[in-house]
Amino acid sequence: DVSIGFEWRASMMANAARDPYWQAAVRRELTDYPEAAALIEDKCSRCHMPMASVVSRAEGGNGSVFANLPIGAGAGPQAALAADGVSCAACHQITPNGLGSEASYTGGFEISLDVPAEGRPVFGPFEPDSGGVGIMHSATGLRPTEGLHMQSSELCGSCHTLFTHAVRPGGAEGPEFPEQVPYLEWQASAYAAEGTSCQDCHMPLVGEDVPVTSVLGRARPEVSRHQFQGGNFFMMRMLNRYRGELGVTALPQEMALAAERTELHLREATVEVELSGARVDGNRLVADVDVRNLAGHKFPTAYPSRRAWLHVTVTDAGGRTVFESGAFTSDGRVVGNDNDANPSRFEPHYTEVSRADQVQVYEAVMVAADGTVTTGLMSADRWVKENRLLPRGFNAAAGGPRVAVRGDAASDPDFVAGGDRTRYSVAVDPGAGPFTVEAELWFQPVAYRWAENLAEYDAFETNRFVRYYRAMAAGSAIRLASVSATAR
Asked: Whole-angstrom Cα distance, residue 159 to residue 108?
């Protein structure tokens, strides 16, 4: 259907290969570990350039990234396929074989390249009409086939469960590292037990019976939109702003609408913030801030550059700010966050915040084998901090170590399935009250340090992304929720 095509064209799925942050991150890894270049490009292209990767592998080679770039002008034999990113043809040709198994993770999906006389199957959630089958086969050589796995989380889990291995001296692999595992987080949550799939949230229903195709299509109930609602509003705006350099084909208004929808989804369907017990106790103001995770996985989830944090302010009766923690700056930093100030440090998890230089940041922080904080995936050996908000009904025992809480949050009794409580206890002059306490939760898809660390690499892709980021940093984060209360 034409509208479905428009929605896909403006999604991060369609632009997976154009993503300038991804390209810069891959270039960084190749610079750090040239001896593992073939392995890195093969793995990274598997989910960002799936059609090109599948064809290259079928011909006995490996998937490649930079041979197929820049988009529209790559010299590689699969450059045209790479340009489509995660295309309709890629997802809808994935077979149900092995989905949800260990072998299916890290892009281990299967696409059959056999071409029987009746056509290679292309799967969808509906039983196809015989007439539609004939039209599709004559036009494309593909045969529409009912495949209920298209509505399963296991389909999404093949690329959204990614394990890496740090490169050790001599090219040896380090231990398995769960770089992003939202499917496993969902699997350990109440949402999986209740039968709520990835598609239910990220591909909302149209809301009325509509034809799946505009050519002789029969109206179908419960047709999913192909917006692929995620969290990266910032990258959508970056793709749109630098569309000429990045070869973006979606119209400017389509990309703008996609970014707006993403922000709306984030504000309406991810978190809630509550403030309770605000009071003045002697010369201290005390208040509890509760953050509830409404998503079916951790929040934030997936690529570890994402972070959320609490911005809390206290103002006196005259409107003067007497306390502030977690202010966002125009260059993309969070005031008081140790990692933004110093790449070798990170902000710990807090049960209580009592100073302005303490910030409650929900994030995952990686370290190399020697304990050095890193933003390089092929250097990452383990999590030293993992306090991203747990989904409702999260079963830690069932989830296992791959989705475990790490660092100080693991011993915080208020960090539980479904959310977290942080107590704020700050010094005030009781005579200056009553006081207004305001708590906001902010979200940033690409944290400051993850971008700025790329400035150390003098390559086209890293220089380009740092230039983009610095120009747009003021809009790299948004406020998702806020609440206020009076303390007397």
From this structure: 8
- CA 411 to chain centroid: 26
Q: Which of 292, 281, 279 is nearest to 437 (CA)?
A: 279
Residue 112 structure tokens: 């059959």
Cis bond before residue 20 (omega within 30° of 0) = no
- Distance (Å, whole) CA 127 – CA 318: 67
CA 115 to chain centre: 35
DSSP assignment of 320-332 equals -EEEEE--B-TTS
Residue written as token pair 């209740």:
194
Name the residue among 193, 231, 194, 198 with its Cα closest to residue 399: 193
Please report how many Cα atoms fall inside a 13 Å half-sphere around the Cα of residue 398, on the Cβ side.
13
Side chain identity at 488, as an amino acid letter? R
Contact call for residues 427 and 213 (beta carbons, < 8 A): no
pLDDT tens for the chain, 488 residues long, are 445 656 889 999 999 999 999 999 999 999 999 999 999 999 999 999 999 999 999 999 999 999 999 998 888 899 999 999 999 999 999 999 999 999 999 999 999 988 888 889 999 998 888 778 888 888 888 999 999 999 999 999 999 999 999 998 877 889 999 999 999 999 999 999 999 999 999 998 887 766 666 555 677 777 888 889 899 999 999 999 999 999 999 999 999 999 999 999 999 999 999 999 999 999 999 999 999 999 999 999 999 999 999 999 999 999 999 999 999 999 999 999 999 999 999 999 999 999 999 999 999 999 999 999 999 999 999 999 999 999 999 999 999 999 999 999 999 999 999 999 999 999 999 999 999 999 999 999 999 999 999 999 999 999 999 999 999 999 999 999 999 999 99
- Residue 434: asked if its preceding bond is cis (omega within 30°), the reply is yes
Q: Are residues 388 and 362 in contact, defined by beta-carbon separation less than 8 angstroms?
A: yes
Q: What is the DSSP string of 117-131?
A: TT-EEEEESSPPPHH
CB atoms within 10 A of CB 204: 15
Q: Tell me the backbone φ, ψ of residue 179, rounded to 5 degrees.
A: -60, -40
Read off the pTM: 0.95
Task: Find out whether 107 and 50 touch, Cβ atoms under 8 Å.
Answer: yes
Three-state DSSP state, 424: strand
Residue 408 to residue 136: CA distance in whole angstroms: 56
Q: How many Cβ atoms from other residues are within 10 Å of residue 398's Cβ? A: 13
Q: With the CA atoms of 317, 321, 325 and 328 taken in that order, what torsion angle do they form, in degrees rounded to the nearest 10?
A: 130
Query: What b-and-e string marks burial along 52-82, b requiring 16 or more CB atoms within 10 Å of the CB?
Result: bbbbbbeeeeebbbbbbbbbeebebbbbebb
Q: Which amino acid makes up residue 156? A: C
Here the tokens at position 256 are 């703008």
Of 206, 209, 212, the C-alpha closest to 135 is: 212
